[in-house]
Amino acid sequence: MKKIMTSIPLLGLLLVTLAVSCKKDTGPSIDDYPLNYEIPKVAVTSNIPVGAYIYEPSGILITDEIKWTRITEKYDAAAGKIGPYVKPELGRYDLRPTETGALNMSKIVEWAKSAKIDFLISPAVKENPGAMFPNNLNGTDSLMVNMLAEHNFNLPSVNMGELKYAISVDINNFSAGLSNNLLLETAPATVYNINGQNISVSREDRLYNFLKRISLYFKDETYYHFQGRPVLVLLGADRLYTENSKKVYDNIRKVIKEQTGKDVYIIARQPQWTPSARFEYFFMQGKADAVTMDNMCNVGSGINGWDRTYLLNRLINENYKLNKDYLSKNFGIDFIPSVSPSYTANINNATPDYNYPAIRKNEADFRERCNVAKMNLGNNRMVLVESFNNWQWDSQIEPTVTDYGEGYGTKYLDIVRDEFKVK
Predict the structure, then answer these.
(1) 245 φ, ψ to 5°?
(2) What share of the chain is helix, strand, coil (3-state, %, to 5)?
(3) End-to-end CA distance of the chain
(4) Are 384 and 290 a contacting pair, CB within 8 Å?
(5) What SS3 class is residue 173?
(6) What is the pLDDT of residues 269-305, one digit of tens each?
(7) What is the mean pLDDT of residues 357-379?
(8) pTM of the model
(9) Above 80 in pLDDT, residue 159?
C-alpha cells in the first residue's frame, strides 16, 4: 500500500510534465519572418508608361572577340563559362550613324513598338569639353540621337512613328575629380581661345551650357514628354558635389526654360541597392522630379551579393518601398521603379569571378520583378527597363536566335507588353 501511495505523486508529476510539454510552442516561427511572403500578381487596369535604355553595342558584339565568345559559348559553370549562351537576332551589329546602323536601329524601333514601349532612352550623351555652346556635344553621341530624332536625312529613316525617345546625359565631365573638398562651383575653369581671345568658363557654367544644348532636341515631335514636360535622365548625378544643389538644379531648369519655353522633367538615376537618403545633398535637395535605380540584378559581390540572390525579388521590393517612402515623405520626389531580366559580370571579366553572382534570365523571375515594379509605382506612374540591348552586362530584352543555345526569341519583349499594358 505504501508503494502505491508513493507512485501516485510521481504519476501526477509525470502528467503535469507531459501537459506542459504539449503546450503550443511560442518560440520563433517562419511565419514571423518579414520576408516570408509571396509577390502578388498586380493587374493592369490602365497602360503604364514604359521607357527602355538602349546602347551602342559594337564594342561588345563586333570589336571584342573574347566578349562575343563569352556571350555565345555553351554554358558550363564547371569550366567557368557562365555567359548567357545566346546570339542576338541581329547578329554582330552596331547602331552607329551609318546606313547599316540606321537599318539596325529601325529594327530596334520595330521591336520596341511590338513590346508597346513608349520611349527609348538614348545612350548617355557626353559633353565635348573642347568647344563652347552650341558645339559642345560629343559628335558621335549627338549623331546617334539624331537618328532617333530623324534629323539625319542622309541616312534611312528609323521609322519612329508613335515611338518616342528621351535623352540620358553623362555628367562625368562635370563631376570628375569633385569631392567634399572640391565642389562644382569652385572647380578650375576651362579657357577657350575664340578668334585669338581667351574666354574663361566655369565648370558650373559648362554644365548649364551643355544641358541648354541638349534641350534643343526637346522641340522634336519624337521627343518624349511626360505630362507635357520633356524627360531628361541624369546619369552620375550622385557624384555631382555642389555647394548648393537646389541652386544648381534651379539654374538647370531656368536655362532650359529660357531656351525652350518648357519645364523639364528631370529623372536622376542612383546606383543599385543604395538608400536614397545617401544623396540628400545631391539630387534630393536639388529636387529632381523623380529618382530611379540602376540594374537591381547587379547584386554586388561577396557575401552580400550571394545573400541577395536567395530572396532577390522580395529584397528588391523592400528596397523600393523604403526609397519610395523616403523620397515622397521627405522631399516630395517621385519614385520610378526599374526592372531588369538579368545581369552577368562574366562577359567583362578575363577570368570567372564567382564573387559576383550572375542572375540568369528566367521568365517567372522577370514577371515577378515586373510585379514588384507595379507594386512600387510612384504617384506619376512610369517604369524604366534596363535594358533593351545592354549586351555588356547581359541585361537585354532584345530578341535572340530561338534555335541557338538558350535563345528566347521575343519572349522578354512579350513579357514587358503583357505586364505593363492593358490586354
Answers:
(1) -65, -30
(2) 40, 15, 45
(3) 85
(4) no
(5) helix
(6) 999 999 999 999 999 999 999 999 999 999 998 899 9
(7) 97
(8) 0.92
(9) yes
In DSSP notation, 16-82 reads HHHHHHTSPP-S--GGG-TT--PPPP---SSPPPEEEE----HIIIII-HHHHHHHHSPPBGGGTB-
Q: What digits encode the pLDDT tens for the residues 31-76?
A: 778 898 999 999 999 999 999 999 999 999 999 999 999 999 999 9
94 and 100 Cβ atoms separated by less than 8 Å: yes
Residue 402, sorted as left (phi over 0), alpha (psi -120 to 50) or beta, turns out to be alpha
DSSP 88: B
HSE of 371 in the Cβ direction (CA atoms, 13 Å)? 14
CB 160 within 8 A of CB 109: yes
Cβ proximity of 168 and 124 under 8 Å: yes
Q: Which residues of 48-80 are buried (b: 16+ CB within 10 A; e: fewer)?
A: bbbbbbbbbbbebbeebeebbebbbeeeeeeee
Q: Coil, helix or strand for 84?
A: coil
Cα-trace Rg, the chain: 27
> Strand 229-235 and strand 225-226: pairing?
antiparallel
